[in-house]
Amino acid sequence: MKALAIGGSKHIGYFTATRLLEKGWKVTFLLRNPSVFDKDEVIKQHIEQGNAKLVKGDALIRDDVKHAWDEAISFDNQPVDLLVFTVGTMPNFRLTKGFVIDPPNLCTACLMNAICTMPQPTKVITVSAIGIVHASYASLPWIYKPLYSFLIHAPHVDKMGMERLAAYCTGREWSADDPEPTEEIMGPGEWTGRDGLPGKGALKDIVVVRPSLLTDGACYAETAPSSKKKKPYRVSDGEISGAYTISRKDVAHFIVEDVIQRWEEYRGKCISVTY
């Protein structure tokens, strides 16, 4: 099995990619700075074994993403099985706007490039967040609402654009309660006519994973007592109450050990996950 990881230099993308590598997958990383792994013995070992490949490029540049797809295919000249899309960046704080990112449509633009340059239909897992769309925001714990409505509003507007793109590709209905993302997020012109973009409903194999507020905690799915049969996180393809936090490592565990294993159940859906 082969995966292309875009946004895999750290956090959820990294933990997901290394889990796949441990299971014998071949993983191609698109990285702006491949040197990020110079001191990473885990990745270096997989490179030496011929299972990991580092491709220098920027997901904001369409040709760089196309090159990454080509490199991923070149492992054995077979199609890529999975795109793991976890692009993100460290936001900057502005007193009047909260946390902002540059460009403001980073995730949406990068996912657009990945889908529009996809050589053939490929399974896609993309990470968003609980609280992005109206219904999900309404289900947030009240103490989180100021955080989501102001402090991290700008990055979530970008995530909404990404979710809108996923909804279009899978043919999932876009709620009338959620505004259409602006041109600043979706790009100039009519985005549904973008070169290479599949038609509405033509790419069913996309799963949007919506974690609650992320932490750097341990993977409790692996450290919990073996006597406990239930996983430490809760999962729902609808809204989920009491969604406070979840560790990035447990999100990666959910992606690899649950979503991929139960693909037919999850395909085309937005899945919330939290402790």
Number of strands: 12
**Poorly predicted parts:** none
The H-level CATH homologous superfamily, spelled out, is NAD(P)-binding Rossmann-like Domain
Taken from the alpha-carbon principal axes, the silhouette is globular
CATH class: Alpha Beta
Sheet with most strands: strand arrangement:
3-2-1-4-7-8-12-10
CATH topology: Rossmann fold
Q: Which whole number gives the mean pLDDT?
A: 94
Alpha carbon gap, first and last residue: 30 Å
State Rg: 18 Å
Describe the SSE topology.
Elements lengths: L1 E5 L4 H12 L3 E6 L9 H8 L3 E5 L5 H12 L8 E4 L6 E3 L3 E3 L5 H11 L6 E5 L6 H5 L6 H7 L1 H18 L12 H4 L19 E6 L1 E3 L4 H4 L10 E3 L8 E3 H12 L3 H4 L3 E5 L1
Parallel strand pairs: 1-2, 1-4, 2-3, 4-7, 7-8, 8-12, 9-11
Antiparallel strand pairs: 5-6, 10-12
Helix pairs in contact: 1-10, 3-4, 4-7
